[in-house]
Amino acid sequence: MSIPGMRRAAIGLTALAVTAFGAVTTTPDQADAGPKPVAVKLLALNDFHGNLEPPSGTTNGTIAGQPAGGAEYLATQLAELRKHAKKQNTITVAAGDLIGASPLLSAAFHDEPTIEALSLAGLDYASVGNHEFDEGADELLRIQNGGCHPVDGCVDGTPYEGAGFQYLSANAFKTATGQPLLAPYAIHKVQGVKVGFIGMTLEGTPRIVSQQGVAGLTFADEAQTANRYARELRRQGVETIVVLLHEGGTQDATGGINDCKGISGPIVDIANRMDPSIDVVVSGHTHQAYNCDIAGKLVTSASSFGRLVTDIDLSIDRRTGDVISAKAENVVVTRDVAPDRAQTDLINRYKTVLGPVAGREVGRTTTEIKKTQETLFGTTLGESPLGNVIADAQLAATDDEQGAVAAFMNPGGVRADLDAGPVTYEEAFTVQPFGNNLVTLDLTGAQLYCMLEQQFVTGRTLYPSSTVRYVVDPAGTTGTVADACSGTRVVRGSLTLGGVAVTADATYRVTVNNFLSGGGDGFTVLTGGTNAVTGMIDLDAFVAYLTAESPVSAPALDRIRTTAEVPAA
Hints:
Elements: E1 7-10, E2 15-19, H1 28-33, E3 38-45, H2 57-60, E4 62-63, E5 66-67, H3 71-82, E6 90-94, H4 104-107, H5 112-120, E7 125-127, H6 137-145, E8 166-168, E9 172-174, E10 185-190, E11 193-201, H7 205-208, E12 217-219, H8 222-235, E13 240-246, H9 266-273, E14 280-282, E15 289-294, E16 297-302, E17 308-316, E18 323-332, H10 341-354, E19 361-365, H11 385-396, H12 399-402, E20 406-409, E21 421-424, H13 425-431, E22 437-444, H14 445-458, E23 463-464, E24 468-472, E25 496-497, E26 500-501, E27 507-513, H15 514-517, E28 530-537, H16 538-549, E29 560-562
Parallel strand pairs: 3-6, 6-7, 7-8, 11-13, 13-14, 14-16, 20-27, 24-29
Antiparallel strand pairs: 1-2, 2-18, 3-17, 4-5, 9-12, 10-11, 15-16, 17-18, 19-21, 20-23, 22-27, 22-28, 24-25, 25-26
């Protein structure tokens, strides 16, 4: 149980130590006079997203200036970190999005390879992230419990045994019964001391997952739910409580992987509202690295794609079960260690089953094309080179077929960079792994302006096709969630499609994916589109464009401009 108190730094600048003092909990001096404290090591990761092989590209493939990631190296690093503690005192945990939005090697087998790999690597408990719901609740239960896929069967020809670790989901409830979808928490005993783990998904999951994925589910407030189950754990004699939370924050760009500079985002409010009995919050979702003390709690995140492991050391009073001290260090999963043999064998087995389709060349690029967003008036709300390419591909797939004059792509659907040179089918799949259908629909000019204003309410920029141009006013007002259309960030009269100004009453054929057309990412205005026609899979459109336009170059980022660049008329 954490008691607000004095904090001290440990291990130089690479770790954070938290020590709590108070009349109720045990001080270090008192502990020295009694039984020796129990040392518990937590090894934590988050947002693995099926990256069995080392991620490619400069955006995803490195961290802290080092090439990092890959299941073979992750397993080796975990084993090495366990050597520094008694094996039975080490618990390996994760904060969600282990699967979903995965590269082809995992996604082609419904992410079964990733579950097998993480089970082999010794994972014990994991919270459920939003991407665990990509294929719906029933599929998540199959991933936990085992069994062949109901449609595709045992894709690799062998039975799927299920996860060798326990998924925890405290705040995802079956709407019909009010019961948690999965076990909300677990109690792990270490030398007689109880450690409680509560699993938590972000409450906003229904806004960022397809409606089919969350059908029949209700998501509750993270802090309130954590506090509820913390009380339940304490009634069972558990005083050391860890929340595995798939929600996070962002620190300043100057912060390193073990810093906590200007931490902001949902994690701050959630941690502040959590009960003091919660000691550690292992977080995720934002793909950021940080090592923080928030409201007397150790709050960590290990970035994404298995490039970091958070090494957390707890000292627990053997008599009271309280945490005496907690410290953490984010450790880079470097590739200069021996690859784990079992992971290598697993990867090679699935690569063999996958066959030659993965390596088929579908196009070429002249240079690396990054997914990174440009900075627009001080925030990363601008265009993305690769996002623009994808929007162009979606327009090319629907301009003749459905008469589309513009296309827009959601930023969360662009998952990796494209390296320079040949592009394989597997690389294209890694960029666009969701398998969404393209949807072309009619929108009025007023609806288009409203959609663009919703960008500033949701904090997500839609990547526009080459036919789109508009101007943003940094001094404009942002609308509200209830009335985004009232915003004035987009200069009226500046939106053109194919060089022709958009008028409020005219109707335009526009292409998006089915996630956006269903109101995903908060773009609810798109649900009001009419005459919708469902087209090809987005990946197929992307592959066709890479083939037809090869070699593809990074487009200019001139589709969204500001009033500073375009003087008022």
